[in-house]
Amino acid sequence: MEAALVDQFVRDGFLHFEQAVPPDVTAACARLLWEQIDAEPDDPSTWKQPVHWVGNLAQPPFAKAMNVPVLVDAMDTLAGPGRWQPRNEMGAFPLRFPHAEEPDDAGWHIEGAYMPPGESSYWTNVHSSYRALLLLFLFTDVDEDTAPTRIRVGSHFDVPRVLLPYGEEGASGAVLGPQVDAASAHRTTVLATGRAGDVFVCHPFLVHAAQPNHGARPRFLSQPCISPTDEHLLRPYEGNDGPIARTIRQALRET
After folding, report:
1. Quick one: which of 13, 57, 6 has its CA closest to 189?
2. How far lies 100's CA from each of 37, 215, 220, 240, in Å?
3. pLDDT value at position 226?
4. What is the helix (H) or strand (E) element at residue 222, kind and residue range?
5. Which of 67, 192, 196, 228 could form a disulfide with 232 if both were Cys (CB 3.0 to 4.6 A apart)?
6. What is the DSSP letter of 87?
7. What is the mean pLDDT of the chain?
8. How many DSSP H helices and E strands does the chain contain?
9. DSSP assignment of 187-229, as one string?
10. Which 8-state DSSP code applies to residue 233?
């Protein structure tokens, strides 16, 4: 990956790869997603929910999308070769529809990655245990009205200081959400808009938020977690000098 893109990632906390996934693959993924829900693409009267959550899918088009060369190169560069686990399936798909009801899931947050015993939600710690990267795949065109993810540029530098007091154990999204929101409130917000086939490669500590769909068409997106390899699960960036490791250490030095 070009040095200029690495510098951009270090500064902003994400990269936008336009048309990373070929159109035929993207279209096949979108068709498979429609098959998972009780709604029809050309009949708005069937769009009865503001959000349909679809679970893990592993059909060949999703495997192809996950492993396009430009993304493999980006993950090698940002997380480190041999430090992340390739995957042939995608995780959760929040499919957002135009709807009068406003879904209550639009708070600023970082993604969790592990669930401690006895807990029912995902947690995060300062080492980013169990998460190397966050990817956002667009399977429909997304403009400013069709529920683009909101991103706080540079917020990956704010989060390690929030996480540090929680140590190895970390904390839940419910605990961390208000804190990472307050810590990053001064950051500029951009919208993850683009065309079907675009992919956003995000730092694991990037602060972001969903929003309702106020447009005229659905928005299909996937947000797979890129996990560290087994030997790096608990401390993905220990002993590493890649871009993500450097930003975490820089943020902690500035506490």
Report:
1. 13
2. 19, 11, 18, 48
3. 97
4. strand 219-222
5. 228
6. -
7. 95
8. 7, 12
9. SPEEE--B-TT-EEEE-TT--EE---B-SSS-EEEE--EEPBP
10. S
Residue 167: both structure tokens together: 């140590």
**In angstroms, rounded to a whole number, what is the distance separating the alpha carbons of residues 251 and 249?**
5
Task: Look at strands 93-96 and 150-152 and give their pairing.
Answer: unpaired
Partners of 146 in the β-ladder = 213
Q: What is the pLDDT of residues 156-185, one digit of tens each?
A: 999 999 999 999 999 999 999 999 999 999
Share of the chain above pLDDT 70, in %: 99
Question: Alpha-carbon dihedral of residues 65, 70, 72, 76, nearest 10 degrees?
Answer: -160
CA–CA distances in Å: residue 161 to residues 43, 132, 207: 48, 18, 13
Using only the alpha carbons of the chain, give its radius of gyration: 18
Secondary structure of residue 61 in the 3-state scheme: helix
Alpha carbon 167 to its chain centroid, in Å, reads 23
Phi, psi of 151 (to 5 degrees): -125, 130
**Total residue count of the chain as it appears in this document:** 255
Q: Burial, 209: exposed, middle or buried (Cβ in 10 Å; 0-12, 13-18, 19+)?
A: middle
C-alpha to C-alpha distance for 112 and 89, rounded to whole angstroms = 19
Distance CA 55, CA 223 (A): 11
Complete domains list, the chain, with CATH: 3-253 (2.60.120.620)
Q: Cα separation of 12 and 206, whole Å?
A: 9
252 neighbors 160 (Cβ within 8 angstroms): yes
How many other C-beta atoms can be found within 10 angstroms of the C-beta atom of residue 241?
9
Query: Within 13 Å, how many C-alpha atoms sit on residue 29's CB side?
Result: 30
> Is the CB of residue 103 less than 8 Å from the CB of residue 200?
no
State how far the Cα of 235 lies from the Cα of 22, in Å rounded to an integer. Answer: 34
